[in-house]
Specification:
alpha+beta, NADH Oxidase, 5-stranded antiparallel sheet, 5-stranded mixed sheet, binds flavin mononucleotide
Length: 248
């Protein structure tokens, strides 16, 4: 069993891989087994995740492999891939495999068994010392901007979820027994990302955030019932509600 929670503190994006080693066959086998056992947000959406050499993609970050995510284009398929991929990102950190969600990358195959390419994670074996030492030094929005109401000891950590261009497109509102999570895109927000792509990545980001949020809730001893919503494409789009209870 992977302790996902502790990996939130350790993980970081390896924008350029240095001092890399080769993954052993055993590490690759274990990774494939982990990938085969991930929990999707929406099990009705068909997905496929494969591992290819970095040279079979446009990625040039010095990684050894890229993990490619393909999906049926149905419902909130981007959110679903974010949720799946974040489990893998945290697993990789636990195995001292450095990772980078690589939104701008492209593989040779844009389609696989009728499924569309969505995104990739580049990976390479790195020394343990290359991982994050103090997560609280990582740049993030102030807590008040992304969380309203009691933080439950959850918000302080969940805010470190990764996102494309560090855009953190989420707001959580705590009403006392329920968390309401929105995908939020600031109006007129300028960044290096082309506007058209923002909605695409934001939807992956929100799936990433939901997995990290749930990991933090569990760690703080909360049980919860999750309701998911279809994204209505508005500026502040309702994405999920969590009715939560503290276990005694
Ligand atoms: C969906 C997604 C796509 C991303 N795409 C890229 C990318 O194309 N290039 C890159 O250098 N970093 C990419 N990143 C990494 C983010 O810039 C990074 O997660 C964010 O700045 C937070 O930093 P951290 O992951 O080190 O905590 C991506 C991250 C996510 C979640």
């Amino acid at each position: 069993m992977i302790d996902f929670y502790s990996q939130i503190f350790k993980r970081k994006s390896f924008h350029q891989f240095k001092d890399t080693d080769k993954l052993s066959e055993e590490e690759l086998t274990k990774l494939r087994e982990f990938i085969a056992a991930v929990t999707p947000l929406d099990p009705s959406i068909r997905t496929k995740t494969i591992i290819v050499p970095e040279s079979e993609t446009t990625c040039e970050s010095g990684a050894q492999y890229c993990i490619l995510f393909y999906s049926e284009k149905k419902g909130e398929y981007l959110r679903n891939i974010g949720y799946i991929g974040q489990q893998i990102d945290l697993y990789l950190a636990s195995q001292n495999i450095g990772a980078l969600w690589f939104g701008i990358g492209m593989p040779e195959e844009r389609e696989l068994d009728g499924l569309e390419y969505v995104i990739m994670i580049a990976i390479a074996k790195v020394p343990e010392s290359a991982f994050r030492k103090d997560m609280f030094k990582a740049k993030r929005k102030p807590l008040e901007e992304i969380w309203h109401g009691d933080t439950l000891g959850v918000a302080e950590i969940a805010r470190f979820a990764p996102s494309a261009c560090n855009s953190q497109p989420w707001i959580t509102e705590n009403t006392g027994d329920e968390l309401t999570v929105y995908r939020y895109k600031e109006p007129g927000q300028k960044g290096i990302m082309p506007a058209l792509l923002t909605g695409y990545y934001n939807r992956i980001d929100i799936g990433i955030y939901l997995f990290i949020l749930e990991t933090c809730l569990k760690h703080e001893g909360y049980t919860f019932e999750r309701t998911l919503f279809e994204d209505d494409d508005t500026e502040k789009a309702l994405t999920a509600k969590y009715r939560y209870k503290k276990e005694k």
